[in-house]
Predict the structure.
Amino acid sequence: MVLGESSCVGCGECVQACPTGALATADGLGTLAPERSVDSLCPYCGVGCQLTFHVRDERIVEVEGRDGPANRGRLCVKGRYGFDYVHHPQRLTKPLIRRDGVAKSANATVDASNPSAVFREATWEEALDVAATGLARLRQTRGPGSLAGFGSAKGSNEEAYLFQKLVRTGFGSNNVDHCTRLCHASSVAALLQMIGSGAVSNPVADVAEAELVLIIGSNTTANHPVAATFMKNAARAGTTLIVLDPRRTPLARHADLFVQFRPDSDIALLNALLHVIVTEGLVDREFVAQRTTGFAELEAHLATFSPEAMAPLCGVPAERLREVARRYATAGTAMIFWGMGISQHVHGTDNARALISLALVTGQIGRPGTGLHPLRGQNNVQGASDAGLIPMVFPDYRRVDDPGARAHFESLWGQALDPNPGLTVVEIVRAILADEVRGMYILGENPAMSDPDLGHAREALAKLEHLVVQDIFLTETAFHADVVLPASAFPEKSGTFTNTDRRVQLGRQAIEPPGEARQDLWIVQEIARRIGLDWDYAGPDAVFAEMTRAMPSIAGIDWARLEREGAVTYPCPTPDDPGQQVIFTETFPIADGRARLVPAPLQTASDSPDEDHPFVLITGRLLEHWHTGAMTRRASKLEALEPEAEIGIHPDDLARLDVANGSPLRLTSRQGELVARARSDPDLQPGQLFLPFCYAEAAANLLTSAALDPDAKIPGFKFTAVAAAPA
Ligand code: SF4
């Protein structure tokens, strides 16, 4: 058996630890002596691992884990080996302008290595002028509401801050959003409503202090691999690990209790746990009385959710539900982690509400080793959200319709601001199709792959009168652009990034952008100047300095401190504050300081199975690929490990469909269809399918529905009814 076919996860720690050099990458790059080494961060997930880029001949030749607070020297396969995308021949190196007369089409595909049939090369002056003129013309002729912007959770805090400021002060509306809408918007909505803060209460590293860790709706080993290693360490050291998931995830092997429940039954399951806690006298009465409101309503609501009543819905025996509830409630310290299995539902906010209630009624929050941790997806989705890349809030989550908050930002930015919340990601797509939004500026996002119901999303992108895309590759979104601006990859710029633990960390530039590609902050400023904004930020440190004046949560952090300390956790309101790892220790940042318990009513998905669409499709990520695959599919080692889209399917279903493992399977939903190879996966339940969404050639979101959670406007990516048949 070769290594790639074994259970090795390719993290490369053995290579890093090998003292003799006997273990090395096959290409020998890591054995070359570097000319310089630059301390920076991993560009992929929200764990925020610190690393060092080793550079030779202006190329990254090796990546090494550093002793950062989130990784202690560890990296996963993406962080250690997924770096050569920056040197890929398909990097955009010159500005591009759509050729006259080349029509846009929802089904457009462009050869990313030879875009000349659709685009012509341009100078920066011309491309920036065309980009900005088109935006300014729409603002003038159609009004501020005709424009919208998508920023990126992969960019730095400074880029996110400037981009949302550009939309708010330059476009004149709050139509700015990013991929948080598609991952944890529901978690944040529930957290803000119930405890007044959308951030995690405790860092991942607190698992070492927890008697019990409960993980639900998170394939942690694939999506947050280094965080998962700390969970495994804790389990080995005696922490009770409870994993709840519709799929048997790899972490289930390390769990004391694994509960495989039916997809879409989260609310039934969580309310059953709450029912047991309330009816068996496991409530922390003192905590509930002193630190919460709404317990009587919650208690009344839970009366009908006995485990016996919910067991048939969840597919979990009542006694198992009781055991989970008892163990969680009676642990001295217990943490809850959750991922997009909870949040990506049309009832995602209610899923999160029920989880938050679990921690509140048991008093499992506000101490080390307790609390709530929604594992954030992209490397800077926490920071981009904090910086205001959200249509209803300014930086630091201050609502745009709050006159006090608006006055603060009008004073800081020197102009009147729109008092109305803007449109969210999917709402912007609908507004384009309704001829309301006509122009967009998209920085680093790839909605032509990441949005639900891609047929409609691509139709909307093609319909835009003016689309400016700023990216490092000609993505599926850039296919529809009028102007493409070649930007900088992560190792080509400096900036701050905030990980899932609320840690603000410095990413440092290691290499120069290729060709004429420019740094994102420079490009955003050039667009801003051309639409009439008088901006002159000397660099990311100048932007960060303004951010600390705008955001009390980071007021005590400055660039020099980040250089010195490497990472500072917010809230950090003053320079002498060490940064607060554990929050909500005394009060919650909400009206009277007491958390609100909010009942979660039983709901089901809108896109439910029927005779024609009997399977449930779950979409998600793979260990080796990240998000829409724009970077990792151009990282040679990662692509070699997982080069092809495969549909996970239970062996019993394969037999029923009379399809051999590895044969092509056609999936058809109410939104679209695709074909990919079947991969036998006994960790799924019969009737479930799994498809990663990183493969453009079998784009999973062609199948998903654009129905939204009413509170958070997040789509239900984790539950789509599909038919499966041999292709
Ligand atoms: Fe990068 Fe996340 Fe892997 Fe750490 S766990 S190396 S941050 S992808």
Observations:
- The first strand starts at residue 36 and ends at 41.
- The CA atoms of residues 212 and 240 lie 4 Å apart.
- The chain has 25 helices and 28 strands.
- Residues 42, 44-45, 47-49, 71, 75-76, 78-79, 224-226 surround iron/sulfur cluster (CB under 6 Å).
